[in-house]
Amino acid sequence: MKTRIFIFEGIVQAFIGIGAVIYGPLLIIDPSGGKAAMPVELLSGSPFSNYLIPGILLFLINGVGHIAGSFLSFTKNNHAGYAGILLGSALIIWIIVQVILIGYANWLQPFYLTLGILELVLSIAVYKQIKSIKNAGM
Predict the structure, then answer these.
(1) How many domains does the chain contain in total?
(2) Model's pTM, two decimal places?
């Protein structure tokens, strides 16, 4: 099994996850966004009056989820491709919805959208590699 693609997928996932497990709790602890340097005014026009719910979702989905996904990738688990496809898609949707709700607010939005697309592409490649190995073993 080619391990480089798993490692690259795991690095991307770990990078995403580490950022989210840092910023998610900052938004939970201070829902005004002050500790994360995110003005609450950005949320005007969105369904949220503060960052509590977005912080919880950021922590759980993009944080804990991506850390777990990176573990699956680094250990070359048979579910790494599935998990990465799900997580990459979730990140892409997260960013698109964020831009729809609050508009373009920061260079991090296109950066993380690009990471989500990269994760999705890598995860599809991992999925295909695992599938071809399984089919060869039949």
Answers:
(1) 1
(2) 0.92
